[in-house]
Amino acid sequence: MSETDAVVVDETSDETDVTEAPSERKMTLHVEIESAGPCRKRIQVVVPEADVSYIRDQTLDEFAGKASVPGFRPGRVPRKLVEAKFGRELADELKQRMLVQSLEQLTVEHKLDPIDEPDMDVEAIEVPDEGDFEYAFEVEVRPDIDLPEFDSITLKREVREVSDEDVQKYLDRMLLEYGEKTTHDGAASPGDYLTVSIEFEQGGQTAREVSELSLRIQPTLRFSDAELAGFDTLMDGVSAGESREAEMTISKEASHIPMRGEKLKAVFNVAEVHRFHPAELGASLLDRIGVESEEKMRDEIRTILERQVTYRQRQSARQQLLELITASSEWELPEELVMKQVDNALHREILEMQQAGYTPPEIRARENELRQQSVSTTRTAMKEHFVLDRIATTEGIEVGEADIEMEIMMMAFQSGETPRRLRARLVKSGVIENLEAQIRERKAVDVALEKAAYDEVPMEEELVGDLDVEAVDDAVCNIMFARSSTPAVAGSAD
User: Fold this and answer.
1) 494 Cβ neighbours under 8 A, 6+ residues apart
2) What pLDDT digit, counting tens, does each position of 200-218 carry?
């Protein structure tokens, strides 16, 4: 079907056969479908008078059979009296039946694949006493996607063996996460923690101050709508009672539109310096984590890192595959639909990272990065979703309860929660549906990638790199405009 040309379809049925039940009788719909923008259709529906009369009679007969009117036995109330007494109820029921039946029929016959509910003013629609029943609406539909023959595709696959050194680096990071801070009287060094207040200045005026913020000195300080590169250099050597200042630029995709791209001066006033001491790998820590021995811990870490290798391979191959499919696609997505899905896409990315064994600080850093580029990132993610959904539908892919249970078990180990508690939290937050959709899409990727050919190349990026981002669980614009000066929560653990 062309996106620009209107399509008019006439379908006939046997109008004289009145022995069928209302749900079995096929309407003689006259349907006109035309493009109303990206992934959006405008649909005009005409239901002939004969079908309207048939359903009206069926509705009236049902009302007459159930109506209770003084002076008449049930089922013996004259139709005219029923029409007079229950006119409004009859009209509402008739309209509902006409809309439901005609919408179901045209969805099947014209292979519509709606994304959302139809955009129609139901209250303004009326079924006439005589003549045809007409109504129009717009609806967002899934784009038409042409899938390639996957066995004709060649992709690059990065390969790497998990080494003992990788396991040790991951373990060192875990020990750091479970460590504790002590007050340090001297100058700060990269890796130390600072208790600071930050004054944000714009145009020479202090816009807002946030106090009692705990920050670790890392190369990058990242808020959800701005970041400061060289934070480690800026704060190296600072002591309690001193101040440092730097310029920050608000992201061009910040949620506070007037501040997008604006430059601010951030003044960091240091109250305290803390030095962090890693935890010791002993019986108490192993018991706290829920692992029997150090050997078992290293085995679990190796499994996590192997999952991360698989995750990176899949993400790389997935990106290559989707780029090949979408490169030749000309369809675009409506902006309203993109904005609705910004948070949903973010939740799904975080879920994938949790399943792959990434730590909370790494996930928070990625979350803030995504929020700074939320609109463009979501648009890309939605295009990928529609492609993967088409693959899953074509291949008949389903997600069972066993698939969900396995994912929750792996996530629970990484987060330190019990599987039951994690599931309850996912259900309560509504994220469990994202988990099911993510598994289905991953299965779709796997089906496509199993059929593709590969050229293996070494994985160049380190599996366990140095943490270089300190993520703050807040936005600069929120601090400046959405609340008063109150303590904020830092991204890293205390």
Assistant:
1) 181, 193, 214
2) 988 777 767 888 899 999 9
Nearest to 208 by CA among 266, 290, 128: 266
Domains for the chain: give ranges and CATH numbers.
7-140 (3.30.70.1050), 150-168+290-462 (1.10.3120), 180-277+470-482 (3.10.50.40)
Kindly give, in sequence order, each residue whose CB lies less than 8 Å from that of residue 299, ignoring residues fewer than 6 positions away: none
Nearest to 425 by CA among 406, 411, 441: 411
d(CA 122, CA 151): 48
Token pair listed for 285: 């820590």
Whole-number Å distance between alpha carbons of 149 and 324 = 11
Q: Is the pLDDT of residue 189 over 70?
A: yes
Rounded to the nearest integer, the mean pLDDT of the chain is 81
Distances (CA, A) of 312 to 299, 316, 365, 403: 20, 6, 18, 21
Tokens 């006409």, located at residue: 98
Q: Are strands 154-159 and 453-458 parallel, antiparallel or unpaired?
A: parallel
Question: First-to-last CA distance in the chain?
Answer: 59
Q: Are 41 and 24 spatial neighbours (Cβ–Cβ below 8 Å)?
A: no
Among residues 138, 134, 102, the alpha carbon closest in space to that of 119 is found at 138
Q: What is the residue whose two structure tokens read 């800026």?
A: 234
Q: How deeply is 383 buried, as exposed, middle or buried, from its count of CB atoms within 10 A (0-12, 13-18, 19+)?
A: buried
The SS3 assignment for 289 reads helix
Exposed, middle or buried: residue 8 (CB in 10 Å: 0-12, 13-18, 19+)? exposed
**List of E strands, 97-151:** 133-140
pLDDT at position 245: 95
Shortest CA distance to 383 belongs to which of 38, 66, 95? 38
Question: Using CB atoms within 10 A of its CB, is residue 301 exposed (0-12), middle (13-18) or buried (19+)?
Answer: buried
Structure confidence at residue 407 (pLDDT): 86
Do 158 and 307 meet the contact criterion of CB atoms below 8 Å apart? no
Q: Which residues pair with 3 in a beta bridge?
A: none
Angle at 142 between CA 137 and CA 145, to 5 degrees: 140
CA distance 100 to 198: 58
The number of C-alpha atoms within 13 Å of 68 and in the hemisphere containing its C-beta is 0
CA-atom Rg of the chain in angstroms: 31
Dist. CA 352–CA 302, nearest whole Å? 18
User: Phi first, then psi: what are they for 451, rounded to 5°?
Assistant: -90, -20
CA 112 → CA 23, 24, 157, distances in Å? 20, 21, 37
